[in-house]
UniProtKB/TrEMBL annotation:
Signal peptide: none annotated. Keywords: Aminotransferase, Mitochondrion, Pyridoxal phosphate, Transferase, Transit peptide. PANTHER family: ALANINE--GLYOXYLATE AMINOTRANSFERASE 2, MITOCHONDRIAL, PTHR45688. It catalyses: N(omega),N(omega)-dimethyl-L-arginine + 2-oxobutanoate = 5-(3,3-dimethylguanidino)-2-oxopentanoate + (2S)-2-aminobutanoate; 3-oxopropanoate + L-alanine = beta-alanine + pyruvate; L-ornithine + pyruvate = 5-amino-2-oxopentanoate + L-alanine; N(omega)-methyl-L-arginine + pyruvate = 5-(3-methylguanidino)-2-oxopentanoate + L-alanine. This is Alanine--glyoxylate aminotransferase 2, mitochondrial. The keyword Mitochondrion applies. It is found in: Mitochondrion.
């Protein structure tokens, strides 16, 4: 039986002693006490199916036995030492993690959050290219540090204070809400209903149009018409599970490189097999980035994140010392290593593919039946369902109605996310543990 702080006292503390800017879901927020794999229990013992996974973070299940065991074992041996000394766990883990990456992506920097990882990637890219100008897509979320609030291009997350200098945005390659493309031009596991592409089958031009916009942004907005770094998620998460048209991201990376820049894949949500068909989201775009940032699923909820890059780029960071007290600490390394084992042993990537594809297809059947479902998109167990009041015009459903549906789901024991520009995309971001098989 739960014996901790009462619900009412917790609410008082939250309103008096915690930041008022803290995001809290639901009119009557749930107070979670316990978790096991895909399940969560609140302090009254009510059970929820967690389809949001702690904002796409829990990758192999809450309190996965293998990961918990590895954490306990390490905790009894050594909690902490900074990396000024050697400790076995970071070395064992670094070798295992980089083995999952293609090409020359072999040098890893450990941090504690996705924001720290992207901050470091930005610094790294600027050091390497000698160019300050940086580009991201509208609707992107890359973190909340003062620098990254510039890269993050959703006003919801921006305070009224100057953000990172030298950061620009280009039009988002959004086939559903943008001017070009349709559901068919996305890299999707199956055929899609909803708004169809204007182009002939197999000849979608949407990616090229968005690429032209990107080139224009560089040419019109950046000194010397040069962009040093381009950040992109493989599927935009917080922005509402936005999938780019098929022929956008790879040519965009090629263009940025052709003018001397580097490309950063933010795999914070899309990495670690969540997309099912591939371990990394960038692989679904058939490209290899210069820098990859990862967080969330990497530690199954434990504060752990990383930046992986090539030896050539890493060398440019050698002119000053890089220090991060907790980055790659023994606990985080032991947990990260056990998460990789759990993904492998439980077959979670395959599970994500099988269950995710089934789920998406079933949601599309519902879309055929109910006009309120404007779009169903995503890959594996990263799924977005966009709700509309007019399917033809793609008018976002009023946030009041979306809120009501969302509250009802919670009352029925189902936790899902909410995102997108209008807060009308239900983000279904599942655990991909074998319990779903
Ligand atoms: N990148 C992406 C794609 C994210 O979704 C997030 C967090 N929502 C971040 C970066 C920032 O991670 P963190 O909250 O750990 O700083």
């Amino acid at each position: 039986k739960y014996q901790g702080i009462s619900y009412d006292d917790a609410m008082k503390v939250r309103s008096k002693n915690l930041t008022p800017a803290l995001l809290t879901f639901y009119k009557k927020p749930v107070m979670i006490n316990q978790g096991h794999m895909q399940w969560l229990w609140d302090i009254d013992g009510k059970r929820y199916l967690d389809l949001f996974a702690g904002i796409v973070t829990v990758s192999v299940g809450h309190c996965h036995p293998k990961v918990t065991q590895a954490a306990e074992k390490q905790m009894r041996k050594l909690w902490h030492t900074t990396n000024i000394y050697l400790h076995p766990a970071i070395h064992e883990y670094a070798e295992k993690l980089v083995a999952k990456l293609p090409g020359d992506l072999k040098v890893v920097y450990f941090t504690n959050s996705g924001s720290e990882a992207n901050d470091l990637a930005l610094l790294m890219a600027r050091m390497y290219t000698g160019t300050f100008e940086t580009l991201s897509l509208r609707n992107a979320y890359h973190g909340a540090s003062p620098y990254l609030m510039g890269l993050t291009a959703l006003s919801t997350w921006k305070f009224n204070s100057p953000t990172g200098l030298g950061i620009h945005q280009t039009m988002n390659a959004d086939p559903y809400r943008g001017p070009w493309g349709g559901a068919r031009c996305r890299d999707s596991p199956s055929q899609v209903v909803g708004r169809s592409c204007d182009c002939a089958e197999g000849q979608c031009q949407a990616g090229e149009h968005y690429l032209d916009q990107l080139k224009d942004t560089v040419a019109f907005s950046m000194p010397n018409k040069r962009c040093g770094a381009f950040f992109a998620e493989s599927i935009q998460g917080v922005g509402g599970t936005v999938q780019f048209p098929k022929n956008f991201l790879k040519p965009a990376f090629e263009f940025i490189r052709s003018q001397g820049g580097v490309c950063i894949s933010d795999e914070v949500q899309t990495g670690f097999g969540r997309l099912g068909s591939h371990f990394w989201g960038f692989e679904t775009h058939d490209l290899v980035p210069d820098i990859v940032t990862m967080a969330k699923g990497i530690g199954n909820g434990f504060p752990l994140a990383a930046v992986v890059t090539t030896p050539e780029i890493a060398k440019q960071m050698g002119t000053a010392l890089h220090f991060n007290t907790y980055g790659g600490n023994p606990m985080a390394s032991a947990v990260g290593s056990a998460v990789l084992d759990a993904i492998e042993e439980d077959g979670t990537q395959e599970n994500s593919h099988v269950v995710g594809t089934y789920f998406i297809n079933k949601l599309r059947e519902l879309q055929n039946e109910f006009d309120v479902i404007g779009d169903v998109r995503g890959k594996g167990l990263m799924i977005g369902v966009e709700l509309v009041s007019d399917r033809e015009k793609r008018t976002p459903l009023s946030t009041d109605i979306v809120g009501k549906i969302w509250e009802d789901m919670k009352d029925m024991g189902l936790l899902v996310g909410k995102g997108g520009l209008y807060g009308t995309v239900s983000l279904i971001l599942l655990h991909f543990d074998s319990y779903y098989l």
